[in-house]
Amino acid sequence: MRVVVTGFGALTPLGSTREELIKAMREEKCAIDEISRYPLDDREVTLAAEVKDYDEEKEFSRKELNRLDRVNQYALLAARRAMEDAKISREEIENRRVGVYITSGIGGLRTIEEDYQRGMKRSFDKLSPYFIPKAIINSVGANVAIDMGAHGACLSMVTACASSTNAIGEAYRAIKNGYEEIIFAGGSEASITYLGIGGFTSMKALSNSKDKNRASIPFDKDRNGFVMGEGAGILVLESLESALKRGANIIAEIVGYGVNCDAYHITSPSPSGKFAREAMDYAIKDAGISPNEIDYVNAHGTSTNLNDKLESLAIKSIFGSKRVKVSSSKSQMGHLLGGSGVVESILSILAMNENFLPPLINYKNKDEECDLNFALKAEDYKINYFLKNSLGFGGHNACLIFKRYLLWK
What we know:
Shape: globular
Largest sheet: 11 strands, mixed
Strand content: 15-25%
Strand order of the largest sheet: 5-4-6-7-1-8-13-12-9-10-11
Radius of gyration: 20 Å
Helix content: 25-40%
Structural class: alpha/beta
């Protein structure tokens, strides 16, 4: 059974609407800036990519805010936008096999911080009764299912930075094999907090650059860590039969999915790049195409030394170093952790339909170990197939292949 994309919803540092996201890519916008969520006195890392002008009190009632961490809020807003974009009514969702595969890499981190502080001051027996429901990762998808009345499978695949890519891939398989008709798939992250930034800082994973245009610089020789981003993205996946029956606007087709594990180290990728390569190879074989048919790779490209070097090695081992165009959307909006794969897929789908390349911005100094054919500008370019990579802590490798809908083959 063929699986198509019939809508999306997003809330990102680059914008939220189709027009905003296309404009941000076309204009090669950098959404990274100084952190505004807390004081930066004596903090080593001062830059992040926040969702700007977000006022939770305008979006949700006080009663709702009592039970929703920001990670839940972002997911709910993205899902509602996806529902509207796909033109699916609540009544239709309630009466069909509609699943929710929405996840997060970390979950309700702000809630964990706040309730720990409350417990230290008052008593750990007097925490908010909403603490656990707000903090646990599956609440991200469960709140969406409750909000729209979706009674199909509600699953949260947690694979660190590969989480939303795995969510999309597993949703694709579920529809392809007839288990669901429609699935809302994606991820949300809201980790620009004391603990989120501090934890990754202590690992030496984050860039400590003070220049927003030289902080998230994937594949650049001067890269020194990733920049934290936040937000959410949801894709509406649907069987082609269902989409045609209801006259949906089809924006892409998913044709391939590859997944495996390095089984090497909890944070470092396998030094051979073998398993990242195999995940791509599995996806290409699943799509029934040759590597020469891939026009563009949206890389994981975190701006960390090991990831970019070993991902480059894996990409070159399949495509060579010069043919396929490559970029990383993290150069524009940092790393949304568990939400990165879906948001980067959305950007790539929009670029595919508008016939241009998502740019790798702020790249200056070539690294001989990352000698790929980078898309340094949002240049006009026809994409018929693109490949999306996500590589998560724990060695989680996930790869998706999207196809321009109605491409003759």
